[in-house]
Amino acid sequence: MPIEAFQKCIDPSCGLEYPIREVRIECERGHLLDVRYKSTPSTSLKEVFYKRRNHANNIFNESGVWRFRELLNFCEIDTESIEDCSKFLVSLDGAEGRLSKPYHMSKVSDYVGVQNLWLQPEGYNPSGSFKDNGMTTAVTHAKLVNIKKIICASTGNTSASAAMYAANENMECDVYIPAGEVAPGKLGQAFQFGAQVIEIKGNFDDALSTSLKRAGEGGGYTVNSVNPFRIEGQKTIVFRALESLDWNAPDWIVYPGGALGNTSSCGKSLMELYEWGWIKKIPRIAVVNSEGANTLYTLYNGKFEGVEVRWNNGKPDTDIINRYYKFMDSNGIKPKTKATAIQIAKPANIVKGLRALDFTDGVVTQVSDGDMLDGMALVGLNGFDCEMASGAVPAGIRKLMQEGVIKKDDTVVGILTGRQKDSSIPVEYHKNPKNRFAHPPKS
Ligand SMILES: [Zn+2]
After folding, report:
1. Residues at Cβ < 5 Å from ligand 1 ion
2. How far is the CA of 263 from the centre of ligand 1 (A)?
3. Which of 54, 60, 257, 344 is the most buried (most CB within 10 A)?
4. DSSP labels, 37-101
5. pTM to 2 decimals?
6. What is the tens place of the pLDDT at every residue in 313-323?
7. How do the domains of the chain map onto residue ranges?
């Protein structure tokens, strides 16, 4: 079979290429990598993907990730061969992505003022967050290159997902977490799935730099979203949304902003689909930061040194990004939000995120913890479950709508990234009658 997939540096003026079986998270000049494909997938696959929804107990058709396997075939398998799929593709019995698709939630829709609003609960994944979409592919690559131990840093959801897939594949898993900054339900999952938890003094950014250092010393295979194979799986979040809309691109796709792996994967999926002729229109990405962890918002909107940081044809001003990081360090500015899933000051995928925003003419906004809690509560009142960070999505759409950026007739898809794993948050919210959607207990 011809070699169709390879890894390539995202910096257009560098462009170093590596074989698919090489384990690295950056090129030798320190730039992030993409997984790239030489062939153009036929649009006739749309019909194949649709038919696979009647999966007939084939777990690779049941999986909301592997159903689209021709668009992420980095293992270069015969995608119709069940033997090949079983041998190469890692899946939690088809559970990843199986239940996630866009839903219309009328109360959220009325609140934000957009009627064509679709929210996709990625929390309905086996470990309870969108991470399973990318973990299934990262662990597939790990298995391809005979890895026995995976490693990650996490605000909670990554560790839960990594530990779950590692347990299912009989791999070891080390997770580095910021001590005291992870929701108890997420930490419990890492232990439950048998991971070795390593607590780091500091925040997520410190945990990530420690875990990357340990991985570089041979301590394991990194499954954070700097791993390009993570991004491949997360593209399927967009595929499922688009398939539900008959591949008619919406006007907007909205994500909470943390490490920017989702923004990056959304951008990559749209770049590929557009290049392949699968979509005619490019949706705009809106990223919603927390006010307490708003690095992308600050840099993208020129709130630091007055310069709007952009992709700039592959030459983003990384000096200003580094100066901002130094400014935060020297002034003791730490990311601070109750939405711990996006409590990140140094988004590891910022350069890929800028590329995605550039390709889609994206915008970046920020919302308060109170706004996120209201968003989370309202999703709950529609009978759907999401965590506080996901509440950034309705909150951000509402804000952009009020600012006239999103128009009331626009079609908007919002990604609810994770399920509620900290029960104290809704309990506290609803106990306080001052909260907008509170439903306080009676005695
Ligand atoms: Zn490079």
Report:
1. 9, 11, 14, 16, 27, 29, 31
2. 20
3. 257
4. ESS---TTHHHHHHHTTS-TT-HHHHSTTGGGGGGG-TT---TT-HHHHHHH---STT-TTSS--
5. 0.97
6. 999 999 999 99
7. 106-127+228-431
